[in-house]
Amino acid sequence: MLVRIAVVAVAIFAALVSIRDWSVRAPHDHPLTALGSWWKGHPRVATERLMLESAIAARSGKSLDSASRARIHQIAQDAPLQPDPFVIAGALAQLDGETTRAENLYGAARLRDSRAPAVRLLLADLQLRSGKIGQGLANLVAVVRIAPYMGAPVVPGLAEFARSPGAVSEMRSAFAKNPTLGAAVLDQLATDPANGPLILALAPRSGAAAPPLAPWQQRLVDSTYGAGRVALAREYWARFNGIAAGASGLVFNPSFQHHPASPPFNWSYSSGSAGMADVASEGGLSIVHFGREPALLARQLLALPPGSYAVKTQLTRQPKQGLIEWRIQCLDGSQAQVIPAGPQSRLFRVGASCPGTWLSLHALPSESQERFDTIVRRVDVKKVG
């Protein structure tokens, strides 16, 4: 039920074993080298060697022989407070299909070292597989709290597990105890727009929504419109930004006011060596163009149904013909149209195969290369017919 976490847990365990083995890591400098040379039966030395043997056996798909298993039992008796023999014995029991015994052994190891991430990962894997969802998630949350760097392998496994029947309520409870882990899992899920309903079910129930958006919220919006589902993406965007659906008309923020809502369904502005665009203090889009190079000044993604539309622009100062223009292009790059920015209504059409439309404002270089500035007071897009 949680294959990814199982693989990650075994990989981490094997890596941990290999790193800890004194004979591999530092055969000449490790403090145990001298100890091992004259007291090979010391529990610490024997444990380290058995851990290496277990890791090698696991990687080769084999199990330990009866003599090695007997040594594990003896070490556990000689060093009852050390977790390592119980970890090894638990791993062997798991490989042999003895789930209950493996869980008990991992539990014994956890009692001896409650801050060992590998132990909790292996224990969580078994618990989740056996339907003990709450306990398994609690151990995973503890892993990330104890060792934050472990979040990288844990998050994909949790994202996979979230799709399991009955996982949502338990995961919401776990995320309430560790919101950072919850946000990371939601961000992982948001890369696939098909996970939208699941993400909304897992997301915390907050008060009134308001920007700035959480990374997972913006990622879900971006992945959804990137998959061509622009209308759904705009619904998510409106929900996350606390905007009433359909309340803003075809163009959001048409008068270019300061508004914290995020792109792409609010304006994004560009400034560079060719020109600058920013919201004026009194409202409207203040434009400065240096007349030498073309410049993208502002753009917004529109969720327009197929049909004919008219665009009209209010400017405080009208530039020479053709120096400022709207470019209207389908999300996939097709059906590009160019319309001069000005007070006259200009028509454009959205085809049936266009899921979303970019409306972008551009400034073009002039023959004299003179600087030009103006303020765009408002842009209106209306359905025609």
N- and C-termini, Cα separation: 54 Å
**Helix/strand order:** HHHHHHHHHHHHHHHEEEEEEEEEE
Beta-strand portion reads 15-25%
User: How would you describe the shape?
Assistant: elongated
CATH class wording of the largest domain = Mainly Alpha
Radius of gyration equals 31 Å
Label the CATH architecture of the largest domain. Answer: Alpha Horseshoe
The strand line-up of the biggest sheet is: 1-4-9-6-7
General description of the model:
With 385 residues, the chain is of the alpha+beta class. It has 2 domains: 159 residues, Tetratricopeptide repeat domain (Serine Threonine Protein Phosphatase 5, Tetratricopeptide repeat); 117 residues, Galactose-binding domain-like (Jelly Rolls, Sandwich). The chain is 45% helix and 17% strand. It has 15 helices and 10 strands. The chain has a 5-stranded antiparallel beta sheet with strand order 1-4-9-6-7, with no helix packed on it. Strands 2-3-10-5-8 form a 5-stranded antiparallel beta sheet, with no helix packed on it. α4 packs parallel to α6, α6 packs antiparallel against α7 and α11 packs across α12. The relative contact order is 0.07.
